[in-house]
Amino acid sequence: MVEGGAQIIDSFARSGLVDRLIITVAPVFVGSAGVGYSIDPASLARLSFRASEAMGIDHVISFQPK
Predict the structure, then answer these.
(1) What CA–CA distance (Å, rounded) separates 17 from 1?
(2) Max CA-CA distance within the chain?
(3) How many CB atoms lie within 10 A of CB 45?
(4) Contact of 46 with 65, CB cutoff 8 Å
(5) Strand pairing of 21-25 and 58-65?
(6) N or C end of the chain, less CB within 10 A?
(7) Contact 50/22 with Cβ under 8 angstroms?
(8) How far apart are CA 13 and CA 19, in angstroms?
(9) Of the candidates 21, 17, 63, 66, the residue with the CA atom closest to the CA atom of residue 46
(10) 20 and 62 in contact (C-beta within 8 Å)?
(11) Contact 63/20 with Cβ under 8 angstroms?
(12) Does this model's pTM top 0.70?
């Protein structure tokens, strides 16, 4: 298990070391401008959508290898 933000997710996805990706989206702003993320779609091309679930105000989305 690896926990991290956009750079960590993108780095592991590009390396091909991801066997399952679970992203939790929480409506929380950190700092004056908040924290965004950008992941290269090409690095996620080998993954397919698995599930999406609302957990309170958070949203959990999971992917697994195709």
Answers:
(1) 11
(2) 38
(3) 10
(4) yes
(5) antiparallel
(6) N
(7) no
(8) 9
(9) 66
(10) yes
(11) yes
(12) no
